[in-house]
Design goal:
The protein has twelve helices and ten strands. By secondary structure, it is α/β, with parallel strands linked by helices. The strands form two sheets. Strands 1-2-3-4-5-8-9-10 form an eight-stranded parallel beta barrel, surrounded by eight helices. Strands 6-7 form a two-stranded antiparallel ribbon. Bound molecules: erythose-4-phosphate and phosphoenolpyruvate. The site of erythose-4-phosphate (E4P) has 9 residues, from loops. It is an enzyme of class 2 (transferase).
Length: about 375
């Protein structure tokens, strides 16, 4: 990889907007005359003012992983695969904030979780949710990578730098990281730091996301649709297991053709819908759908989202139900997801800066309520193993 001076990575945005192209603007009808669905395409001048982004290689040079980090991430990925394949009898717990909006707050949380992960390591494989992109039902803040200032201005260049620096710091805590891949073009900037990936309920039907999962070098969970349907996610697991040809941003930032090998560790994540699906009947229905598709009967269950009606106060009840199923010996339950952060609840920051310790997206269970949940799951996993 060529070594580049940091100034070579800076955005090329000029200080004042470039004039619009007279040739193009004289051809384009005025926007008032256009039906709302027909917007003029960006002009070459618009594109020039946006400035280039660093390539994944350039960003990794600024915020590198050490050889030890890379070796540890490879080990974490194998461990998660072993849990999914039941070669490792522990339970995976993917836990952490709905989204990272404050890097200091996220790292404080990661430090606390790293301590808890060591405490429960005989029974649990604890994975930190380090989600920097948010899919929205309609509109809203789309995450630190796209909008690091939480003001909707969308400074992707700054977001990539802040996001990668957070991920490499989080890796240094020794925890495996979980990440939802929302925009396939951004995956090469972050994928080397991730040990468990997710394709979310709003993108699981998308072919580019399934193809991306077939290339990602870690186990990837496919979430059931927002509607609660399982078949789309089951089809995504099948699609991801195959080899595909896909366009992808290469390490040096060029659009390239990639031939994926297929991801044999893709699996189903139950996140509920209008009706929860974490209970024994929901898990049994998932096992039946996987068996009918000829897939391994293994699931991760998300205690939040549709399974708690986005009410964080209901997550402990969901976890208790799952713990009972696990303690009773259900070996198809490979993992549990919990949305948890430093403080309990969520905020809607008006115009000001958000509180660093409180979620700006979905409500989370606070840290003091999270530790007993980990304890409950560890006891359940120990009983199952025995
Ligand atoms: O996980 C977070 C949210 O559930 C997801 O981003 C959708 O949020 P929204 O329905 O508020 O847009
Ligand atoms: C958006 C998320 O979940 P889902 O896709 O299940 O809504 C999430 O886990 O942050």
């Amino acid at each position: 990889m060529p070594s580049l001076p940091p100034q070579a990575l800076s955005s090329q945005a000029p200080s004042s907007p470039a004039p619009s192209s007279p040739a193009l603007s004289s051809q384009a009808p005025s926007s008032q005359a256009l039906p709302t669905a027909v917007q003029p395409l960006p002009t070459p001048a618009d594109l020039a003012t946006a400035g280039p982004l660093p390539s994944p290689a350039e960003l990794a040079l600024l915020f590198p992983l050490s050889a030890d980090d890379t070796e540890r991430i490879a080990r974490h990925r194998r461990t998660v695969g072993d849990v999914l394949d039941r070669r490792d009898g522990r339970l995976m717990v993917v836990v952490g904030p709905c989204s990272v909006h404050d890097t200091a707050g996220a790292l404080e949380y990661a430090d606390r979780l790293a301590g808890a992960a060591r405490r429960f390591e005989d029974d649990l494989v604890v994975v930190l949710r380090a989600y920097l992109e948010k899919p929205r039902t309609v509109t809203g803040w789309t995450g630190l990578l796209n909008s690091p200032e939480y003001d909707g201005t969308g400074d992707l260049d700054a977001g990539l730098r802040l996001g990668r620096s957070l991920l490499t710091d989080a890796v240094a805590t020794g925890l495996p990281l979980a990440y939802e891949f929302v925009d396939p073009a951004l995956a090469p900037y972050v994928a080397d730091t991730v040990s468990w990936g997710a394709i979310g309920a709003r993108t699981v039907a998308s072919q580019p996301h399934r193809h991306l999962a077939s290339w990602l070098p870690m186990p990837v969970g496919m979430k059931n649709c927002v509607s609660g349907r399982l078949d789309t996610a089951v089809a995504a697991v099948q699609a991801a297991a195959h080899s595909h040809t896909l366009p992808a941003v290469s390490y040096d930032g060029r659009l390239t053709t990639l031939r994926s090998t297929g991801n044999r560790s893709a699996h189903l994540v139950l996140r509920g819908g209008p009706v929860p699906n974490y209970d024994r009947a929901g898990v049994a229905a998932a096992r039946a759908a996987l068996a009918a598709a000829g897939l391994p009967e293994r699931v991760v269950v998300d205690a939040s989202h549709g399974n708690s009606g986005k009410d964080h106060n209901r997550q402990p009840g969901v976890v208790a139900d799952l713990a009972a199923q696990i303690a009773d010996g259900d070996r198809s339950l490979a993992g549990v997801m919990i949305e948890s952060y430093l403080a309990d609840g969520r905020q809607d920051p008006g115009g000001g800066r958000p509180r660093p310790d409180l979620s700006v997206t979905d409500a989370c269970v606070g840290w003091t309520r999270t530790v007993p949940l980990l304890e409950t799951l560890a006891q359940a996993a120990r009983r199952r193993a025995a």
